[in-house]
Amino acid sequence: MIRLFLIEWYKLRKYRAFQVLTGLYFLLVVVVCSSGMLFLQYLKSKGVDFKSIDPTMLPVYHFPFVWQNLAYVAARLKLILAFLVILSITNEITYKTLRQNIIDGMTRFEFMVSKLSMIFVLSLINTLLIFLIGLITGLIYSHDRSLTVIFTDMQYLWAFFLNIFSFLVFALLIALLINRTGVVIIFLAMYTVIIEPIITAIFSNAPLPPIFAKLAPFFPRQAITNLIPNPFPQYILREIQDYVSFSSVAIAGGEMLLFLGMIYLILKWKKTS
Amino acid sequence: MESILEINNLYKNYGRIKAVHDLSLKVEAGSVFGLLGPNGSGKTTTLGIVLDVVRKTKGEYSWFGQPPGSESRKKIGAILEGPAFYPNLSAKENLRIVARIKDVPYSKIDEVLETVDLADRKNDKFQTYSLGMKQRLAIGAALLSDPYVLVLDEPTNGLDPQGIAHVRELILKISGEGKTIILASHLLDEVQKVCTHFAVLNKGKNVYTGSVEEALSNKENVEIIAPDMDRLVQLVNRYEYITDFRIRNHKVIVHLNHQKTAHDLNTFLVSNGVVVSHLVTEKKNLEEQFLEILSQST
To answer: What CATH class is the domain B219-284?
Structure first.
């Protein structure tokens, strides 16, 4: 297992695009996640108020709300990590190194585990980073710093991990299916930002038979997004879902297993001439 | 002798195209085995199948007398269709990955880089290498696990004469160490210079298998001129150890069969009163043999 991770690590660590993309991504996560208060101050300076409450008084960084808020915000940025995963797959195909790895004695399963181990580690680091940012900002802004409150709602960190990991698995699958770097990147970006949101919006809201609305949560992006419900409407006193629902974990987790199975089958059947 | 690779009745179809058709062959330990054939004759496809990167349609193959798998691939050093490495990594970093895959200690890396003459460029990125250097790195990577057998697919393709000579020397050096080498090539000269055995593929079929020595040794052509040409022709016609003869540019060209040499023919002529003024012997080269085999097979 460590051997397989190290193989992937040696492939990537001196790769400029890997350094740039991971650096950029983690920097962005830190900046975006810790600048919430600056953003609220900016809103205040523009004279915005939330039902006559001073925006800076909103408990965005307060325990335990900070976990859901950070997990939700940080999960918007994962497309950058997905690009990295795509590159690491399509390069192997373009440079014929996947084939050479197999000729050299790797099994297809080992190749898959090697790629997944990197995705796992990236997701884990990402989750730990969110935990640290949440802990620090929470300790700065919260009034209640008791351990029970701090560690309430850790469920969002698990959900965040699953969110990132399963999205990267999805990106890996698309990359293996399409193979061409540019096409995969454009497709994944278009799909997650435009195509699927439109389809799921139509399915859930248009006057269609009720079966369509029931299908909407099964679309891959929607399934992953549903893991962490949007917490922000609560600040304008709307009702939100303040828990990770079992059904969302079951759907996203189930689809992830399905994707993993498909990845293995593609690798097994992908014998090129 | 122990067999390194055995292929039995292998087939590969791409749709209606029969890339490999009922191919069988056996590579013995210690030989340098040339896989010959025109472009598109199925050489690379065959190697791709036995290296487990191309799916066979049907048929069997085994390495070292065992069913194929990742463990036997680790004991094979192979390049298929040119060098495949991570362009942004140096030679050393690329070989580290190969070493990890093959479970070989890193200490072997410098050793093979020395062997393929890349030690002074080992920290440069692969993408900065010339084609010859890339090809040599690939051979180095193949040597990393100290494999029983080396599979090289067109190792001199696209190289300049110096690069070709370099790679050829390397192959001879490696085979001198007792390793088995399987070499796919359409360069006959290359095969003639380095191989001990060869098979000729045509349209996916194995149309000839044999040793290079055998294919060449029993075929000698002798070119003769004598002052009395008519008498010479008469005598040659009487000589029973020829397969045929012809007259070209006022020279008699005799194809001897494998029992007699030019020396015997000359002795025969002299004892019958003809003293030659010109006698050149020429061994048939692999190219002629190859073209003959191909024309017979179609």
So the answer is: alpha beta
Domain(s) labelled CATH 3.30.70.260 in chain B stretch across 219-284
User: Please, what sign has the CA dihedral across residues A238, A239, A244, A249?
Assistant: negative
Q: Cβ B102–A105 below 8 Å, yes or no?
A: yes
DSSP category for residue B66? B
Mean pLDDT of A163-170: 97
| B58-63 vs B3-14, strand pairing mode | antiparallel
Q: Tell me the pTM.
A: 0.86
Q: Which of B18, B53, B76, B109 to mutate to test the interface with A (most CBs of A within 10 A)?
A: B53
Enumerate residues 6+ apart whose C-beta is below 8 A from B223: B251, B252, B253, B254, B278, B279, B280, B281, B282
User: For B44, which residue in chain A has the nearest alpha carbon?
Assistant: A273
> CA-to-CA distance for B274 and B156, rounded, in angstroms?
48
B13: nearest CA partner in chain A: A273
How many Å apart are CA A172 and CA A166, to the nearest integer? 10
Distance from CA of B114 to the nearest CA of A (A): 21
Reading the block at residue B146, the tokens are: 């100290």
Per CB-CB distance under 8 Å, the chain A contacts of B78 are: 103-104
Chain A partners of B45 at a C-beta cutoff of 8 Å?
Answer: 273
What CATH architecture does domain B3-215 belong to? Answer: 3-Layer(aba) Sandwich (3.40)
Beta carbons of A273 and B52 less than 8 Å apart:
no
| Tens-digit pLDDT profile for residues A23-59 | 999 999 999 999 988 888 888 888 877 777 788 888 8
Contact across the interface for B89 and A96, Cβ inside 8 Å? no
Q: Residue A95 and residue B51: Cβ atoms within 8 Å?
A: no
ipTM score of complex: 0.88
- All CATH 3.40.50.300 domain ranges in chain B, comma separated: 3-215
Nearest CA of chain A to the CA of B240: how many Å? 52
- If one counts the domains in chain A, the total is 1
The whole-number pLDDT of residue B123 equals 95
Domain of residue A199 covers 2-269
Paired residues of B282 in beta bridges: B221
Q: Residue B224 forms beta bridges with which residues?
A: B252, B279
pLDDT in tens, B40-84: 889 999 999 999 999 999 999 999 999 888 989 999 999 998 899
- The upper half-sphere exposure of residue B215, i.e. CA atoms within 13 Å in the direction of its Cβ, equals 24
Low-confidence ranges of chain B (pLDDT < 50): none
Q: Which residues does chain B have within 8 Å of residue A101's beta carbon, measured at their own beta carbons? A: 97, 101
Considering only the beta carbons, identify the residue of A10, A16, A107 that sits closest to B97: A10
